[in-house]
Amino acid sequence: MSQSEAAASVGVIGDESESHTTTTIQVTQSRSRKRSIVWKHFEDVGDNTVVCKNCGVIINCKRKSGTTQLRRHLLEICEGITGEERQRVVGGVVTDPFDRATWKFDPELTRNLITCLFVDAGIPYSVIETRFWEPAMRSLNPDYKSVGRQTLRNDSVGVFKNGSELLLIEFDKIDSRVSFTSDIWTSSVNLGYLCLTAHFIDNDFNLKKKIISFKQMPYPHTGEAIAKLIEQILIDWKLDRRIFTLTLDNCSANDNAITHLERKLWEKTDFRGKYMHMRCTAHILNILVQDGMNVIQSAVTKIRELMRHITSYPSRLQSFNYIAEELKFKPRKGLILDCSTRWNSTFEMIKQALEYKDVLMRFVENTKLEVPTVAEWEETELLAQYLENFF
Predict the structure, then answer these.
(1) Which domains does the chain have, with CATH numbers?
(2) Which terminal residue of the chain has fewer beta carbons within 10 Å of its beta carbon, N or C?
């Protein structure tokens, strides 16, 4: 298999098409021509359109387009092609696209892999314009030509859209219902985003989960607003008639959202939506443990303020570490400050406070800082042992 053929397993870049149809796929530019063995599996029906002879899927094929997307269809999507024919599509034997004996530089594949690297690793697009990027890449292959950050961004959008089209096809192929989980996340600049994840079992009985949407959620986050956004996402993905359950946090806004969704989708769901609402077990556990931790609330508040005080300035942390070394404790690069709404982070904080109890007690000498009393330390240590079972 040549390197250009391997591109089919990675994704197609630069496709700005808005189409999300499950039967029409946009083909991108390639240097291959119609003489490829791939073309024996397709019939030209005119108007830049071909039909797969194996499964009947219609594919838009521009006059100068190549076989990358057609090859992907045969290798990953087509259900009508036999295993033997699929072997022929890749040249008889599936080989390493980077084998030295057959390798040939393919700038399209390289550009595609770089795009996927940036997306997968969360690398800022500006990195591609740093002064050592192109020299480093050209040291690997002198024929490499870099692109700008805007082109890289457009390529990322193309990969996303192509992946969305393939996921739509996958949803269309499965026989099972689809369950969903959703939560609202707040960014560092206080913008709300709703994330919706689909969970399903494919036809090979593999459990899969895919994030199908991560959209900004305007304030206020009312139940009706949440329901409308989720409903629109389901319609966009043609999953409004496939929903089985929806798992949400245990709060009143989500209860209202479920009420609105049940009214809209009850005819499309199993059991008229009676069992659609699933309450998040992790959120219920968080509420349960938070309630139990009220008995040491005074100690937790004192520990939290002490941790915040020490981590506020490097000089204070440095003083803390001097004391730690003196008392034969391991110095810390930082101390844990919890998120008060997440019990597990509070548990981690009090565990560290108990470990460095002697250091903290020495640190507060000659200060006005409050620390837990002897009785509060004992209660905190006892409760921490119980919390270990939930962690």
Answers:
(1) 3-160 (no CATH), 176-279 (3.30.420), 291-387 (no CATH)
(2) C
* Percent of the chain residues topping a pLDDT of 70: 86
Between CA 198 and CA 283 the distance in angstroms is 19
Q: What is the CA radius of gyration of the chain?
A: 28
Task: At 165, list the tokens.
Answer: 């089209």
Read off the pTM: 0.64
Query: What single string gives the DSSP state of each residue in 327-377?
Result: TTPPP-S------TT-HHHHHHHHHHHHHTHHHHHHHTTTS------HHHH
Contact 207, 198 (CB under 8 A): no
Using 50, 70 and 90 to split pLDDT, how confident is the model at 112? confident
Nearest by Cα to 314 from 341, 332, 298: 332
3-state secondary structure of 26: strand
Question: For 27-31, 193-197, 218-222, 340-344, which range has the lowest pLDDT when averaged over its residues?
Answer: 27-31
Compute φ and ψ for 54, nearest 5 degrees.
-85, -40
Angle, helices 281-292 vs 343-355, to 10°: value is 50
What integer pLDDT is reported at residue 25 of this predicted model? 42
Provide the 3-class DSSP secondary structure of residue 196: strand
How many whole angstroms separate alpha carbon 185 and alpha carbon 251?
15
CA distances from 57 to 54, 85, 131, 134, 187 (A): 8, 17, 46, 41, 42
Cα distances from 170 to residues 95, 105, 166, 208, 231, in angstroms, run 26, 31, 6, 11, 20
> What tens digit of pLDDT does each residue of 114-168 get?
999 999 999 999 999 999 999 999 999 999 999 999 999 999 998 888 888 888 8
Q: Are 387 and 289 in contact (CB under 8 A)?
A: yes
Indicate the pLDDT class of residue 18, thresholds 50, 70 and 90: very low
Nearest to 281, CA basis, from 250, 251, 257: 250
Residue 112 to residues 135, 148, 231, 385: CA-CA distances in angstroms? 19, 14, 33, 51
